[in-house]
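Bit of a strange request maybe. I'm writing a small parser for structure token strings and I need a real example to test against, not something I typed by hand. Could someone generate the tokens for this chain?
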Amino acid sequence: MSNNEINPMGNVVSQALAKELEGVLSPLKQWIYSTFTYKLELNYLKRKKEVAKYIDSYDPNLEDFEVKPIFDADSVRKYIDEIIFEAQKIAPKDLVFPDKVLIGTIINSSQYFIDDEILRKNYAKLLAATIDNSKANLVHKSFAKTLEELSPIEIKIIDKLFRENFLVYCDSIRVYNISFKENPDKNLLEKSKKIHIPVEPVVFFKDDTSVVNELSFLDLSTSLSILQKTNLVKSTVLAAHSLDNTNLSFNQQEINRLAKKYIKSPKKIARKLLNEYYNLTEDAYQFAIEPNLQYYELTNYGKAFCNIIYSTTDEKSIQIEHGRKTP
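Reply from user aminoacidic:
Good idea to test on real output. This should exercise your parser:
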């Protein structure tokens, strides 16, 4: 007889670990059964009876017509598999029985999102953390409610933000110092005035990628607002400076470089608007531009949330300011 057995995810685990996992996972499985599978069975029988009333050729003994259940049974199976997959990452010495309030809150919250793969996997990670002694005390029931507020777009942004430390958002630029080349002292605007011009919204990250610049302004601004509403991120307006200014700190210069790369043709957009508005000749004037940049980073709550949802054994957790480190 083999000393190993294969779980539904296809991972080979020792019999000893499998036995321990079976014990601590039992409350999760039972709760999932009562939340999903039991309701599936009851709803199937109830709907089958209701639909049958409207079938002209109703036969009381009819057993075979199909009724779509309220939950997708395949999603429930995947949910359990994903919990097991995450649980196998836990060191055997850290396996503990989960807190009833935590698993009840998380599973009840997840039932509305079980058919969405991205959200389901995040709930699985959250549930797995409840049986991990190194994380269980750091899991807060509010994390489940926070997940309820997020769409796959916000999950994508917060996951990336966790790994890259910050993101920068821009949806407009400021134009100023508009002067004629032949007469630089003649300025179209008062020196203190600036023109705000919208540009295609963009988000870029520290690692020189922009993963959501294909989203519409509404989608992007809404997602960032939701992340702030859930207290996962906080934003700061970066100090205004020209895109061509080289007298900046390294971080500011790097942000400028990324802004130039991802903000599509800011000077071209500005010049087109100025030409039309002031009826100017293309090469008759010069101007400076600066982007309106919003700097986003995780809050302490966001760091605690991400350390549970996203950190794994081969990734470092973020240290929470004025708090304790996660293991």
